[in-house]
Amino acid sequence: MSNKLDRYDQMILDTLQKQGRITNQELAEAIKLSPSPCLRRVRQMEEEGLIDGYVALLNAKKLGLTLMAFIGISMDKHTPERFEALESTLADYPEVLECHLITGQSADYLLKVIVKDMDAYQQFLLNKLTRIEGVTGVHTSFVMKSPINSTALSVT
Amino acid sequence: MSNKLDRYDQMILDTLQKQGRITNQELAEAIKLSPSPCLRRVRQMEEEGLIDGYVALLNAKKLGLTLMAFIGISMDKHTPERFEALESTLADYPEVLECHLITGQSADYLLKVIVKDMDAYQQFLLNKLTRIEGVTGVHTSFVMKSPINSTALSVT
DNA sequence: ATTTTATAGAAATATTATTCCTTAAAAATT
DNA sequence: AATTTTTAAGGAATAATATTTCTATAAAAT
User: How many angstroms separate the Cα of B94 from the Cα of each of A11, A20, A31, A151, B134?
Assistant: First the structure.
């Protein structure tokens, strides 16, 4: 763990967050370093877990997934059993991209969900979400547009 | 646009959503196809825009970014000018990972924000968010934990 | 000033991507 | 049903890239 990121590391992370499949040679050129030390730095940050992984981002619309929603969920009891059961059930549903335990609302969880259309949403709600033990309330906010949708964190 | 994804395409997308930097040879092996047609398929889906791009996902905690929040924003007027001004202002703030225009709440926008700590959050709120023209209300939900946090869409 | 440590750069080698060509299978036409 | 057309797979050669190893250099510590 040789913490503290210098300029090179920051530029590497900035670049990889935008172009995850850039070649090491192009990356090295972009940050003005030769390929060997550039690759060494990348590998070390991967080792350290600073870089969690690499993923392809798909176009939801082109896949026919046109409806995104945020769903607030209220629970009857706030016991670990209830929470764990809900979390592991949701983990098996591909519609659920995110599940956050939150403060500050009547809701306990906030979900981000992507489905094909309103019909699929209804199915998800009726057949999956509301059938989970302990779920007492559900509040849906549909997404009309997402002017910002990034995965890039600030490394400075 | 030769739509309709066959099994090979689905497997490619599934794999690339998990391992965005897998080599073409390993990918080909994983889906039981030889490297040439495998690469052809990947390139075509990139061309079609089905694959939006590739990114490295960083570990927020290890970067010192320990606080995630969802923020509901209410606006005074629902005019295009107000919306555009807010959106372009927020686009310049690296703390803001997502911005969604939503239905179903008193809020008009839902933001996903990641900052270093509560102090940084307060700065963001006071110096940035609440200074934007037209913002009348702000409601924050802090994230305690995120048992599910994925970018992978279902391709079946 | 000298040793130690850390990191850059160069070059050789191994691996991978890419292109081009051939072949096979499926679809369409007669 | 046979033939043509289209589509996509597989193989092999080539180009590009990653990876390793070694050397040199610069910074830090003694």
Answer: 15, 19, 21, 10, 21
